[in-house]
Amino acid sequence: MQAPLSRLSTRLGRNVMSNFVRNHSHGGVPGENLPFDIQNRHKLTLMFTVFIGSGLGAPFLITRHQLLKK
């Protein structure tokens, strides 16, 4: 009983993934699957610095804000 269901599930999973890859791939261009542009090096550096800096700096800014509250 479980073997036919297992085979059906495996076949369905493979078909879904192969259709996804076939319909959503555009030729292996580096960076095409990223949610940001990697062509402009200076903009990428600035955005990376802001993204990482905000995450690393937030605890220090929050602590400073709490210590300066009256």
TrEMBL record:
Keywords: Membrane, Mitochondrion, Mitochondrion inner membrane, Transit peptide, Transmembrane, Transmembrane helix. Its main location: mitochondrion. InterPro entries: COX7C/Cox8 (IPR004202), COX7C/Cox8_sf (IPR036636). Pathway: Energy metabolism; oxidative phosphorylation. Pfam families: COX7C. CDD domains: Cyt_c_Oxidase_VIIc. GO terms for cellular component: mitochondrial inner membrane; respiratory chain complex IV. It is a single-pass membrane protein. It comes from the Eukaryota. Belongs to the cytochrome c oxidase VIIc family. This is Cytochrome c oxidase subunit 7C, mitochondrial. The lineage of its organism: Eukaryota, Metazoa, Ecdysozoa, Arthropoda, Hexapoda.
